[in-house]
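Morning!

This is the sequence you dropped in the shared folder:
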Amino acid sequence: MNSLKSILKEAAIKGVTEARARIFGHVLNPTGERSPHKILRKKLIGDKVLQWYPHDIKKDNPLIMARQEQERLAKNQTRKRRGKGPPKKGQGRQAQKRSKK
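The structure's back. Tokens below.
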């Protein structure tokens, strides 16, 4: 008799918890396993991040971008003339280490 009472009590509690989860939109996790639900229910913040940072006008204007590219290329050429440019392929640090061995 006692076991029947406990079985009915457990069934009633289980039914109530399932109904509560359905009504309030909760995710029922009776086993306690890890679930991504907590992370997925958070609001997405991408739009807020975009609004926070000011719009970069340089990226829109092709004349400014072209001038910056010309400055970069000129700087690279002067560095190459002084011998400070990047090494040719296969002549960098790793290649020098391999040749010493």
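Headline: Residues 17-51 form one domain.

More detail when I'm at my desk.
O.
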